[in-house]
């Protein structure tokens, strides 16, 4: 490929794509993106997490200046060239009564799950979504790793999502598993493809998307398969670097 820096965008998931899950980006990856890739194309981030968590993993709030686009919470909050764009709110969109009924059921369901360990912060209310973690987000990294293995065997998250869909068939929510310990709940259409609405008028000839959770139910699935993107499934940050090296002849 002989890219034009103004016509091609490389858009990245964070967890498992540019960083190890919930870890900070390693310096060799940051150097690669900034020094080798950025001169060849525009670069952007899109994550389901809020901006604070994205900034922590990307080594600081100045990430909005180092990357041309930063889409937090799937693009409900976004930055272009360091300046904030519009915001959307799940509370305003769904209404308090409907949200409370949903959250109350989630709390009751979580109380019935038995796991090897449970910690704290099982529900995290974000600007544009609800993040649900059966083990609790305050668990340690070792506990995260152990839960991921346990969940792969026992399908804790998938089973819970099935129960939520059955109990709330008409609520208008979508469910997406991302990372190691949780899943996201958001209004239909508020998956990562939402960020593409902000890019439709930018004039890019190609938008390359890189993510690791691209299978059905993963939080990269919709944007990976969207007709507006060229999807690249990755297994790790090292894999991302390898694919970029081959794609751009770096």
What do these coordinates show?
The protein is α/β, with parallel strands linked by helices and 250 residues long. It folds into 2 domains: 8-88 and 192-248, Rossmann fold (3-Layer(aba) Sandwich), CATH 3.40.50.1000; 90-187, Hypothetical Protein, Haloacid Dehalogenase-like Hydrolase, Chain: A, domain 2, CATH 3.30.1240.20. It is 34% helix and 20% strand. It contains 9 helices and 11 strands. The strands form 2 sheets. A 7-stranded mixed beta sheet has the order 5-4-3-2-1-10-11. β1 (8-12), α1 and β2 form a beta-alpha-beta unit. The longest helix is centred in the middle third of the chain and has 15 residues, at 96-110. The model has no long low-confidence stretch (mean pLDDT 95). Its cofactor is Mg(2+). One of its GO terms (cellular component) is cytosol. Keywords: Cytoplasm, Isomerase, Magnesium, Metal-binding. Mg(2+) binds at residues 13, 15, 212, 224, 226, 229. Its EC number is 5.4.2.8.
């Amino acid at each position: 490929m002989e890219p034009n820096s103004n016509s091609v965008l490389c858009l990245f998931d964070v967890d498992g794509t540019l960083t190890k899950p919930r870890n900070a980006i390693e310096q060799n990856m940051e150097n690669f993106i900034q020094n080798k890739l950025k001169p060849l194309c525009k670069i952007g981030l899109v994550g389901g997490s809020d901006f604070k968590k994205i900034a922590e993993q990307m080594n600081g709030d100045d990430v909005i200046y180092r990357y041309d686009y930063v889409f937090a919470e799937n693009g409900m909050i976004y930055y272009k060239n360091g300046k904030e764009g519009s915001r959307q709110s799940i509370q305003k969109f769904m209404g308090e009564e409907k949200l409370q009924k949903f959250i109350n059921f989630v709390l009751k369901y979580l109380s019935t799950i038995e796991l090897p360990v449970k910690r704290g912060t099982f529900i995290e209310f974000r600007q544009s979504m609800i993040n649900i973690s059966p083990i609790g987000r305050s668990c340690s990294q070792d506990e995260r790793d152990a839960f991921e293995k346990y969940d792969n065997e026992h399908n804790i998250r998938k089973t819970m999502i099935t129960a939520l869909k059955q109990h709330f068939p008409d609520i208008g929510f979508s469910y997406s598993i991302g990372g190691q310990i949780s899943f996201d709940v958001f209004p239909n259409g508020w998956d990562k493809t939402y960020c593409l609405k902000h890019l439709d008028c930018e004039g890019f000839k190609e938008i390359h998307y890189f993510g690791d959770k691209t299978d059905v139910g993963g939080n990269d699935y919709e944007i990976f398969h969207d007709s507006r993107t060229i999807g690249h499934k990755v297994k790790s940050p090292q894999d991302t670097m390898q694919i970029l090296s081959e794609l751009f002849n770096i």
